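Supplementary Note 3. Input sequence used for the single-chain structure prediction.
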Amino acid sequence: MKGNETVVNAEIVIKHETRLCKVNGKYGIFHLWEEQYTRPIIDELRLIPTEIGSQVFGIVEFADCVKRVQPDEIIFCDEQSDYLAQLNGVHDGTKKGENK
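The predicted structure, written as discrete structure tokens, is reproduced below.
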């Protein structure tokens, strides 16, 4: 080593977690969110981009295919969604801004 160099032993672990879900009555495995951007719309008078659109999809694996799915069509069916349902049951009737 030279001068004030420090050696750091670091381990980086990247985990790709999936979630069980249901889309239109069919079970699948949710993999990730994908955001697609549209091309800029050009203002023909000034030749400058005026807006860029985007849309989000869920990537879901089914037994026979993989599809892009609209977010509002995905119903998660795993421990995380069960936990949220339990929390909502416990706090059901609690008004916004009111502590229980």
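Helices lie at 79-90. The chain has one helix and seven strands.
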